[in-house]
Amino acid sequence: MQKIKDKLNKIEKKIKEKKIIQKKRDLEFEEQRKKAKKEIDEIWKREFENNKDFINGLNEMLSTFKKLDKNNKYEYTIIGDDTGFGSFGIREIKFVLGIISVEMRIPVIIGTNIQLYVNEDIYARAIDHDPKHLRNFRLNDTQNAKEFYFDKVLEIFEVMQE
After folding, report:
1. pLDDT of 97-109, one tens digit each?
2. Are the C-beta atoms of residues 100 and 118 closer than 8 Å to each other?
3. How far apart are CA 114 and CA 140, in angstroms?
4. What strand order describes the sheet that includes 100-105?
């Protein structure tokens, strides 16, 4: 009987140790997640959502497109929502040119890249992860991401006018 008790105690001790280790890992992960979220929020607000030059660029393109082509729908939205995808939220800029949208987002679950996505159908539900539709930039490379984004919107507008 003592042998069984000893083995049970050994098993119980192992399980408790694993639980302690797992709890420690969970706490470390949660701390890293909070730190990453804070960094993403700061970059998002500074470089996109509250960046006057960036907003002015979007507004300038929008007003010019509407002036040059009154027959198509042109609009943009900036979403910096903390309620989507759990506690991470959605960080996205979407410029719609007729039925085409050019989206730039920070995939908040990963949080290390800025992702540019050209969606050929604004009514599509799923994201097409075909490389021809995606372009990724490092999170600290916002300037190049913004320039590429503006260039892509202008390129699509120009092609629509041909």
Report:
1. 888 888 888 765 5
2. yes
3. 9
4. 74-81, 90-97, 100-105, 113-119, 134-138
